[in-house]
From TrEMBL:
Segment forming the signal sequence: none
Organism: Capronia epimyces CBS 606.96
Every Glutathione S-transferase UstS-like C-terminal domain range: 122-219
Sequence ranges assigned to domain GST N-terminal in this UniProt record: 22-99
Designated name of the protein: Uncharacterized protein
Length: 246
């Protein structure tokens, strides 16, 4: 008889044509779920279905328990099945998972982790958004492409494809800074492959999740990033927790 599989968590993820997770924010949570061996199932939502679905689940915008203000419906969202609780935003979800499933522990913050997170967002994030935003269209359904193009071009003020003209300039502007963040990532190299040494922390999941997201959109952007020392090592060390992708 097949074993009964009762998911503890339902994970709302972002759909793409590859039918695997490609959202960096959702990957952070997926890595935590996989690392902690928490049973879960996934519901993939197309971009235009995120807001109506989450509203329908009763989620409201405003201030979250973590103090963040939400003014937009986003994934990841989880449903904690045993208590029928819905939670939005990766930071709030990570705090909930850590307090509800503390073993094995995932340190959520550290001074080094905060520094890496902030610097990586500023420098790698800048290069990633230039390279990945226009290429993301290539893995979206026609409906999601229409939504993504409309909303992103509205905020950019120009066509997504115009980013290609700025791509090389964006990467060379931050090259040295990407290398410096890579050095920070290797601070505890002597103790193990992760940012804090032997065991993963949320910062590792942030790094590995962002790299996996880039890889799902375009292998070349991933390869370009792991040429800088530090990034690929964390990614490799997190691979065992990336097996469940859907
Ligand atoms: N603060 C949010 C941001 C997550 C986020 O930006 N999610 C994107 C997918 S990667 C999203 O759901 N976007 C919806 C939209 O653009 O309409 C978190 O970390 O959970």
């Amino acid at each position: 008889m097949a074993a009964q599989y009762e998911p503890e968590i339902v994970l709302y993820d972002l759909a793409c044509t590859k039918n695997v997770c490609f959202s960096p924010a959702v990957w952070r949570i997926r890595l935590m779920l996989n690392y902690k061996h928490i049973p879960y199932r996934t519901i993939f939502l197309e971009f235009p279905d995120i807001e109506p679905t989450l509203k329908g689940l009763g989620l409201v915008l405003g201030e979250s328990p973590s103090g963040n203000i939400y003014n937009k419906y986003t994934v990841p969202v989880i449903q904690h099945v045993p208590t029928n609780t819905y939670i939005m935003d990766s930071v709030t979800i990570a705090q909930f998972l850590e307090s509800t499933y503390p073993d094995p522990p995932v340190p959520l913050t550290s001074e080094l982790g905060l520094e890496i997170g902030a610097k990586a967002r500023a420098v790698v994030g800048r290069a990633f958004s230039t390279s990945l935003m226009p290429r993301e269209l290539g893995i979206l359904s026609p409906r999601a492409q229409e939504y993504f193009r409309r909303t992103r071009e509205e905020s950019l003020g120009h066509r997504l494809e115009d980013l290609f003209d700025k791509e090389e300039e964006a990467w060379s502007a931050v090259g040295e800074d990407i290398r410096a963040v890579g050095e920070l990532i290797q601070t505890h190299k002597a103790d193990g492959p992760f940012v804090l040494g032997a065991r993963p922390s949320y910062t590792d999941f942030f790094i590995a999740g962002s790299l996996q997201s880039a890889r799902m959109v375009d292998e070349r952007v991933f390869q370009r990033t792991i040429k800088y020392p530090g990034y690929g090592e964390v990614y490799e060390a997190c691979l065992p927790y990336m097996e469940k992708k859907d």
